[in-house]
């Protein structure tokens, strides 16, 4: 049985190498120190993990040039050869899954029980897109009586990938694997709060035989390295995961170079529970979808819409379970909720406790910091809320659930759609006709009926409204990372208009 002490001792071994040099950038296959550094600290106790190279515009320029130089050969490599390398990356992720999970937990505060799976999911992402690499360029033949149209796809060029700090390892693989499978080269700018596993991942890629310059890692801050990446003329597209207002900034920054953008942004996702649902399963799913991953999850069900007729009983059970969640050290296998990523985020999340009170909602559970070291907050439930309250409208991004009661289906739909976001929705009902009707009208990119978020990689992932632009998954990822070309061949002597004859 692996326990906290064993995890801590293994972690210490894994971190030792970072303590000397710090985390360096990886540009054109070479380690590059930044002209300046910043520190990454653990949210568990604020202790220094290591220093990190602080990339600036000049580092981004070097990385973009390397990605540009590496692009022709990587794009020309057969899909079968790319597939082999991507599978090798997946193999190495699996070999180092424990190290990745331990580092991720320490760097982000996420609980080990979830991060061990997230590391393996990163390998799955690589395997899935590896298998698609040989067919990535495939197109269609679209004949007419006069012409044979033949379409094909080709990789767009060097791309920038900008990722956030929540489940950073898994999200990086989710964006980078399809880019490489498509034949693009990459400059990755990971979040400044969680640089550890992005470095391990880039090292794995090189160990797996990825040619120099195909994958470049530049650490740094959004306003420095991130901005420079979005503005660089050699970078053809930006795949971004993060906050909606950052997405808006990136769109402006990329305008001069006509950047193609793909945005996976914030959410304020409803879980709608009707009185005819299997309420025990709905309760399990609602709790899982907001309190797992510390609630720092774009697809979290942060608004509970509960039908009045069952609300008292449902909320009472909820309070009991929320108070019973195991908050603790992220490396303790028993922990369900760890500390929030950073003081800045802790301040943001805890500020909603006062906002809830002044909004007029009731704090039915939690509503305070845990106290002691680390950025821990008590899992929190707000009840008696209405949808116009700030706690129902803004993405809190912590283990904080806002419960809103509704009378009937029409009211549930109005409330569900009355937010700026539209990432996911979760509908609980045993009335199949209602489920169909409701899911049709619900403004969200992804909806689960009688289920928590269960991902199937070929399905489209993404949001509507302020939750994003574009989709990932299966062929949708290739649509973003590739250009379409159509060639029309005349089949014979079709009539050509003769002007000036
Ligand atoms: P963030 O927007 O603050 O930062 C994300 C990344 O963008 C970081 O790497 C940051 O350095 C960079 N960045 C910041 N300013 C930039 C700029 N001007 N130009 C270029 N890059 C810049 O987001 P965060 O706080 O790290 O992550 C949490 C957010 O991410 C939440 O809103 C969450 O919902 C969202 N998210 C969405 C999805 C999804 O699939 N829709 C998935 C995970 C997270």
UniProtKB/TrEMBL annotation:
UniProt keyword NAD present: yes
Domain of life of the source: Bacteria
SUPFAM superfamilies documented for this protein: ALDH-like
Residues at the catalytic site: 264
UniProt keyword annotations, A-Z: NAD, Oxidoreductase
Domain Aldehyde dehydrogenase intervals: 35-487
PANTHER family: 2-AMINOMUCONIC SEMIALDEHYDE DEHYDROGENASE (PTHR43720:SF2)
Homology family: Belongs to the aldehyde dehydrogenase family.
Name this polypeptide is given: 5-carboxymethyl-2-hydroxymuconate semialdehyde dehydrogenase
Gene source species: Roseibium algae
Taxonomy of the source species: Bacteria, Pseudomonadati, Pseudomonadota, Alphaproteobacteria, Hyphomicrobiales
Gene for this chain: hpaE
């Amino acid at each position: 049985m692996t326990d906290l002490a064993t995890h801590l001792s293994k972690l210490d071994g894994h971190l030792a190498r970072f303590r000397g040099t710090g985390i360096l950038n990886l540009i054109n296959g070479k380690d590059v120190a930044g002209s300046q550094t910043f520190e990454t600290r653990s949210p568990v106790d604020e202790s220094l993990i290591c220093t990190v190279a602080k990339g600036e515009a000049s580092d981004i320029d070097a990385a973009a040039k390397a990605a540009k130089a590496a692009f022709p050969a990587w794009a020309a490599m057969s899909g079968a050869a790319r597939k082999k390398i991507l599978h090798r990356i997946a193999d190495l992720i699996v070999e180092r899954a424990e190290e990745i999970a331990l580092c991720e937990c320490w760097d982000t505060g996420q609980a080990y029980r979830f991060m061990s799976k997230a590391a393996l999911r990163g390998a799955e992402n690589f395997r899935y897109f590896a298998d698609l690499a040989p067919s990535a360029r495939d197109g269609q033949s679209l004949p007419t009586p006069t012409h044979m149209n033949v379409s094909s796809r080709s990789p767009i060029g060097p791309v920038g990938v900008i990722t956030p700090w929540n489940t950073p390892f898994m999200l990086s693989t989710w964006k980078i694997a399809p880019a490489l499978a498509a034949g693009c080269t990459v400059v990755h700018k990971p979040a400044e709060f969680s640089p550890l596993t992005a470095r391990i991942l880039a090292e794995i890629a090189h160990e797996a035989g990825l040619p120099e310059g195909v994958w470049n890692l530049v650490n740094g801050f959004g306003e420095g390295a991130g901005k420079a990446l979005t503005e660089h003329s050699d970078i053809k597209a930006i795949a971004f995961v993060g906050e909606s207002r950052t997405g808006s900034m990136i769109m402006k920054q990329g305008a001069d170079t006509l950047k193609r953008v793909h945005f996976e942004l914030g959410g304020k996702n409803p879980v709608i529970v009707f009185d005819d649902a299997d309420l025990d399963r709905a309760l399990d799913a609602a709790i899982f979808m907001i309190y797992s991953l510390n609630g720092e999850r774009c697809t979290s069900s942060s608004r509970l819409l509960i039908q009045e007729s069952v609300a008292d009983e449902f909320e009472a059970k909820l309070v009991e379970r929320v108070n019973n969640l195991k908050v603790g050290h992220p490396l303790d296998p028993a922990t369900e909720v760890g500390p929030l990523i950073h003081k800045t985020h802790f301040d943001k999340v805890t500020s909603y406790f006062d906002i809830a009170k002044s909004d007029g909602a009731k704090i039915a559970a939690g509503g305070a910091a845990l106290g002691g070291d680390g950025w821990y907050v008590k899992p929190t439930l707000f009840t008696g809320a209405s949808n116009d309250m700030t706690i129902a409208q803004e993405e809190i991004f912590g283990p904080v659930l806002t419960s809103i009661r509704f009378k009937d289906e029409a009211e549930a739909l109005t409330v569900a759609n009355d937010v700026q976001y539209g990432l996911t929705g979760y509908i609980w009902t045993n009335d199949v006709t209602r489920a169909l009707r409701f899911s049709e009208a619900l403004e969200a990119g992804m909806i689960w009926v009688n289920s928590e978020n269960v991902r199937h990689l070929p399905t489209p992932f993404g949001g509507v409204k302020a939750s994003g632009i574009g989709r990932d998954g299966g062929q949708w990822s290739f649509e973003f990372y590739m250009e379409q070309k159509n060639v029309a061949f005349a089949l014979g002597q079709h009539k050509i208009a003769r002007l000036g004859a």
